Amino acid sequence: VNRRSRLLGRLVYSVFVAFILAFLIVPAALVVSLSFSNDPLIAFPPHTWGFKNYVALALIHTGCIPLGSH
Amino acid sequence: VPVVRARRSWSPEPSLAIGALLYLPLAIVLAVLLGYPILRLFGAAMPDGFNLAAFSDYFANAARVRALVVTFRDSAAVAVAATFMGFVLAWALISSPSRPLRGLIWVAVSLPLLMGTVVKNYALLIILQRRGILNSLLVGTGLVAQPLQLLYNEAAVVIGILYTLLPFAVVPIFAALLTVDFDMVRAAESMGASRLTAIRSVVLPIVRPVMIGTGMLIFVVATGFYVVPVVLGGATSPFIATLIQNDMEQFFDMKSAAIAAIVLVVLSLVAVVGTLTIIGADQFRKSTGSS
Predict the structure, then answer these.
(1) Chain A within 8 Å of B137 (Cβ-Cβ)?
(2) A37 in helix, strand or coil?
(3) Mutate which of A16, A24, A41 to test chain B, going by most B C-beta atoms within 10 A?
(4) What confidence tens digit (pLDDT) does each residue in B92-147 have?
(5) Does the reported pTM lie above 0.95?
(6) For residue A51, what is the DSSP state?
(7) How near does any CA of chain B get to the CA of A36, in Å?
(8) ipTM score of complex
(9) Diameter over CA atoms, chain B
């Protein structure tokens, strides 16, 4: 019984740590994945994938297009 | 007759004047950045001179009292959850033999700090909305029949603030756990205690002041949150900061905004003093790292 309860405790602890890690990582992973979306509006999962946002960012940074025009 | 001037005896303790001079820059900074704004706040709250009637009027308004209650209830929930989850993560960092897991935990703890406030909240918005990831998961696995209302309530606000402040709980508790001699935990386990009992009876008494101090700091910071209650809480979860913004930007009522700000400051001070009383001034100094 002692060994079983110890294993159960370890399982609960591991699940809880995994839950906290997911809580911290999932929003950031979502932002990264959405940055590769070519959709005009934010939607998850994206309908089309690509580098549109990165290209726009580079063009804005180099002054080729004004901010907000992409 | 030659004049013999009495030489001052050397003392390792600086004189009162030197001490006052050394404190002068700090006193100036505090006076300019803290004292003056608070005096201006009191001036804006009581334009006709010292009068506490304005504060009784504030507490007579049910909407403002509700905002106050929501602010402190949600902040307390965030403080408790962050301290508990922070302890669990810090314990995993200390006790895990797996280097990749420790690395993953550090990366996870750093992620909320690397994202902007608005980006973080929109990510949580996408997760918690009616057709969001979490509801899709819950409905898809059959745990719930209909999508849950996860947004625009106090739970969403608590989740949002917790996401931002959890890293600030992990780091100090991890630092406190580094000072614990884990031979004591092993000794407790060798005498028949379970791991949980060993943590409760050996580790927690040592790190308790840090945990209480961390919870208090998170509570005080959480009471001032503005973006999370607006984006994730909506109209159902007003924070005092939301009311202050409404008073200033929509109603141009600086007096009410100043009173709300004073109430927030005073109640946060009460929380700090309460914490000092609970854990003792010496242990509080230890927990916050000041000498």
Answers:
(1) no
(2) strand
(3) A24
(4) 999 999 999 999 999 999 999 999 999 999 999 999 998 888 999 999 999 889 99
(5) no
(6) S
(7) 14
(8) 0.82
(9) 106
